[in-house]
Amino acid sequence: MSTAISARGLVKRYGAVTALDGLDLDVPEGTVLGLLGPNGAGKTTAVRIFATLLTADAGEVRVADIDVRREPNKVRRVIGLTGQYAGVDENLTGRENLEMVGGLYHLERQWVRHRASELLERFALVEAANRPLKTYSGGMRRRLDLAASLVAKPAILFLDEPTTGLDPRSRLDLWAVIEDLVAEGTTVLLTTQYLDEADRLADDIVVIDQGRAIAQGSSDELKDRVGGDRVEVVARSMDQLADIEKALASIARGSAVIDPDQRTVVVPVTGGTGTLLEALRVLDSAGLHLDDIALRRPTLDDVFLSLTGHAAQASQEGS
To answer: Is the pTM of this model over 0.70?
Structure first.
């Protein structure tokens, strides 16, 4: 599989602040790479360099096997970019915005009109096509912004926090569009702090902090680094906690964690759902009646906190 995006030793400084400090990454063609990190980690800076909007202080970047520093115009012909905030003109209609983008690419006018109609239909914006953007909802603006990045049919798409500020339904709609694009062969580099977004969309994830990559792998691989499955039991009373811990000792693969305030006992386990059934059996045999029991897997939130020391949060990042 060919590499669509490659960075080696990427460095970018803003005065005394180092936004990127030797970042390396690779994105194979036709895949989604999720770039995760806390505010100020350097995610947006990296995207702006890949998209030729900034010049790195050091390091090499190749997009579609083109040197970004030496041939930025060639790179711009094969990429699309959707930033954190809608990059469309609110005084123009949806159709006019898409046709304006086609003009900026110097595409043939009649082809652009056909492409605009195609995209308006794909993004469920036909009814609003001739309305000024100032009348659009936030979700409609984001859909149009993504449509604008696709006018020239780019092979590589940079999505910088594309669902920031959207309601849950609008986020799901955009996710479906992104999945369709990847199924058609588009390569996507996605920055996000919505960890469920990376969990669903990304084939591979790079976690960056303070401008460096600190972990890489699939969602499942990163979760495995934090730890395996665990059985979580909520007791009916604090008096049961010690008995629950003792009963679960036969299936535990490590020390139990007891929280008296929450009346919970959590034990690390292996074996998936079969282990949950075994836990129910041993607890029932011990005559212990519970308020709740569940099998938990580590989440990307757990991974994020474990690796960076920061909780994920809604982004207001500019770097």
So the answer is: yes
